[in-house]
Amino acid sequence: MRGWRSSRSGRATACSLADTIGVGVPAQVTELTAAVREVSAAPLRAHFHNTRNTGYANAVTAAANGFAALDASLGGIGGCPFAPAATGNIATEDLAYLLNRSGLATGVAVAPAAETGAWIGQQLGLDKVPAQLGRAGDFPGDRR
Fold first, then answer.
1. Catalytic-role residue among 15, 62, 80, 110
2. In order along the chain (144 residues), what is the average pLDDT of each group of 10 residues?
3. Is 80 noted as a catalytic residue in this protein?
4. Alpha helix segments (H runs only) across the chain
5. What is the pLDDT of residue 118?
6. Do 6 and 65 fall into the same domain?
7. For a surface tag, which of 25, 58, 95, 110 has the fewest beta carbons within 10 Å of its beta carbon?
8. What residue numbers bound the domain in which 139 lies?
9. 26 and 65, same domain (yes or no)
10. CA distance 104 to 42
11. Are residues 16 and 63 in the same domain?
């Protein structure tokens, strides 16, 4: 559940924690963050799948623990061909909605992102994409 991106000097330029089979829970994200911080001050990023409905909770926990980047995909489309039952990535539009409404500005306009995720799904011949925002719509009002 660890990955390092190194520069030519051999120093870690970023550390990425990934849960491509969607079995992690927020307590593990906190625990792994602390373990990584003991050995590196490199910026952290995370990649979560929502296979068991924990991907968004893990992403919020990562954000609370100071992660610099969170991977997501429009529509929640994708998976991992090497991981058993990996049903999909967390959706960009759903994650941005959650973070924006929690007061963490993402810079993502959720309505256009949801439209794009649905469009990509149509191009792929999917009846519907895993993302929820495209079906539920944005909620009016700014929480900030």
1. 80
2. 48 86 96 95 95 96 97 92 82 96 94 96 95 90 51
3. yes
4. 26-39, 55-64, 92-101, 110-123, 133-136
5. 96
6. yes
7. 25
8. 75-82+92-144
9. yes
10. 21
11. yes
Please, what is the end-to-end C-alpha distance for the chain in angstroms? Answer: 34
DSSP state for residue 16 in the 8-state scheme: E
Of the CA atoms within 13 Å of residue 96, those in its CB half-sphere come to: 23
Q: Which residues contact 42 (CB under 8 A, 6 or more apart)?
A: 4, 11, 12, 13, 14, 15
Radius of gyration of the chain (CA): 16
75: left (phi over 0), alpha (psi -120 to 50) or beta: left
At 52, list the tokens.
Answer: 């068991």
Classify 4 as helix, strand or coil: strand
The encoded tokens of residue 90 equal 């967390």
Match 């949801």 to its residue by tokens.
114
Q: From the CB of residue 85, how many other CB atoms can be counted at a distance below 10 Å?
A: 12
Q: How many domains does the chain have?
A: 2
In this structure, is residue 123 part of a structural domain? Answer: yes
